[in-house]
Amino acid sequence: MYALCDCNNFFVSCERVFRPDLEGRPVVVLSGNDGCVVSRSNEAKALGIKMGVPLYQIKGLVDKQGVVCFSSNFSLYGDLSDRVMSILRQKTARFEQYSIDEGFINLDHVPEAEQKAYCERIVLEIRQGVGIPVSMGIAATKTLAKVASKYAKRYPGYHGVCVIRTEEQRQKALENFEIGDVWGIGRKAKAKLESAGIKTALQLTERSSIFAQRLLNKPGLMTWRELRGDDAIDITQLEIKQSITISRTFAHALTDLTLLEEQIANFCAHCARQLRLQHSVCQQMVIYAHTSSFRTDQEQHYLSELVTLPVATANTQELVCHALAALRRAYRRGAPYKKAGVILMKIIRETAVVPDLFDEKDREKEARLQRALDHIDDRHGKRSVILGAQMRSDTTVYRTDHKSPLYTTDLRDIIRVRAH
DNA sequence: TCTGGGGTCCTAGGACCC
DNA sequence: TCTGGGGTCCTAGGACCC
Question: pTM of the full predicted structure?
């Protein structure tokens, strides 16, 4: 049996940990640039605020109903996520984190009769220890555990934990579960299934495996098996990320090459640091920038350059150098670039680098410099030392009008909160 | 006026091999 | 007019997740 532990309205719950006065009030957390709603309290959901809706479209409702908005504060969410996950990890060696706010515990070490009470204690421990409300679903497969956790969330009577164990429970749970809410069934699959007359999860399980595979291919077959109680999905994570990307939308489009270069240099430096943190290097990099896809009144321009590196590297200076050269090649003068990004690909362990016989760089020396710079950042805070290319101007290009303080990671904020 | 960000997996099709 | 068969590898794009 698996237990899925899922944090309720995670980003909003994180904000409320430090603002208990916001319990019971409608609260939303916004995406980057304060663009869209990405997390909603139950009260905000009750007002009809949909996931992913642009803020400007609900401005009236927000003002009228006194909805509290927060810009996203990922260092806060990441920090609280770590605390929740470390509690779960303590429970069993067989814990798999699935996302920032959920993870699966293998329950095989707990007697069946005690599993529900065991999970109820975990819900309480996380609520009291971290301040985050969570829901848990127990079942024989991960997909069914996800279903169970949604019931746990939907009905307060479950006290945060719902179990799907017997065949009768499985049938009843799936009968009342919309097909589009099943883990792995997205927009396209939902439409296909509905036109085949399938509206609930149970109806899918009543069709043949051939039907599921023909309509939805391999992923759909896996979902079909899991819903029938056959443990089929393995989410064991890879030891290193296969790709690392940073991208941002700007508050106002950038036309100036210098400003764009500064952004790309920063994205690149940030990606490279993450690459080094997982002791890996990359062999390819894509840099891209494009105009606003929502502006039908102006000409669209999409630039994208693939850079193949002579020797796999995680060196910030080297990557920034290649990235800026690529940007200058593809940049179109006058185009209003609304979004830009960097993607690192073909990532391998740093111990697997194949050296180039004709390489003229002293890579050992450059690596020592890089380690020294990382050490300074670790000790004195991010961006203590940066490249000149990362700060060509002092122009602000992002909007974060509603950002909460860095309660858990910035000492000044911790002192401020305690004083308060 | 204003519309997010970071990932993984799968598949079809092309290039290439014998 | 007729124009093989089987296999691997790589890539771009799509679908999905949170």
Answer: 0.94
